[in-house]
Task: structure prediction
Amino acid sequence: MMVMGQKMINSPYARFGPGIIEQQGILKSRSMGGAGIAMRDPVSINYLNPASYSSIDTNSFVFDFGIEYQTNMLTDKEYSYSSDDINFHHLAMAFPITKWLGFATGIVPYSNGYYNLIKTVTENDVEYNPVIGEVQNTHKGAGSYNNFFAGFGISPVRNLYLGVNFTYLFGNIERDNLYLFTDDNNQFNNLSSENIRVYGYDFKYGIQYSVNLKNDFFASAGLTYSMKKTYNSEYEKIFLRYAPYQGSEYSVDTLSYVYDDNGSVELPEEMGMGIAFGKKDLFLLAADYIMSNWGEVSFHGYEEYLVNSSTIKLGAELIPDKNANYNYLKRIEYRLGGFVTDGHLMVNGEQLNEFGITFGAGLPMKRSKSRVNLHIEYLSRKGSLENGLHIENCLTVGLSLNLYDNWFMKQKYK
Result:
């Protein structure tokens, strides 16, 4: 099985529950604010709603591979800190089975659990205790959860489309808390570490209704639903103390150890709805609303940090002239959008909110329906500074190859 690389972006909010939930969608929909529940496109993959798989062109094959660069700036009352990373984002493919049945599969990120916090208490700090001396606290996390999906989209009657995704969630997140007494060699240093592995399958259901209007205009609506999900979990937690002198008989002393391979975690029931309106090969407008019941799930003691969330996503696409022969700029697909979210985390009694704006472009390849998709996203994750929280400003730049080919067409010779 292919293993996705971990995104090394420092976010202290990744300390809770499943970590930071990744923005979902292939780069076309992400450049439109993440909207896509009602969207249908014969040359791209939209796993946000499996009903869209029935729109893939007959006799075609679509492949999409993406990477992204991300940088995150953290700001609180006293300090600013930035981190950045470039990583694999998604791999997906789709093709029709019949004129009314399409199939898609791929691997995409679900959440990221990376963070790295270090605080040193010196004699100039208010928290300094002369009996203990200087102390260094290190809190760090690593790992991620990813989704493999495979699904079908079918058109049982004209204008109506149904779909289902089988999803397999897998991965693990490890969190360490280390306390070093750097001034006093008579003190024992402490390490608390937990590892949460999650794996299991679920289903996501989708429906779309689309109608063609006069003069190449069209309108569509979509719904998606996934039930509250219970996944298998392996949970390990160990608490150690050790002497500064590694040669000491007390170099490592296990104070407690817990291992549970029969546990489970839950992920929330989620419902989404979307609408889209546009004119073929000219423009597209889309809007989504998503509700996730995070406040009703359990996740190894992190329940107090999880709350119900809702998201609104808006997006638009414009193609000045898809058939322009001598002006490449007119053939480019220009995209923009935005989103606002009541986040799934409650920290220090405050629900974290997110908002973002997105831009993108689909660059057509010569004599082909294939495209290079560019994506730019600015996201702000806010906690009030007065409440001991911080603000994160994240910039993401993505690039994907959306390759289209006619694989199943019979050649005719005269």
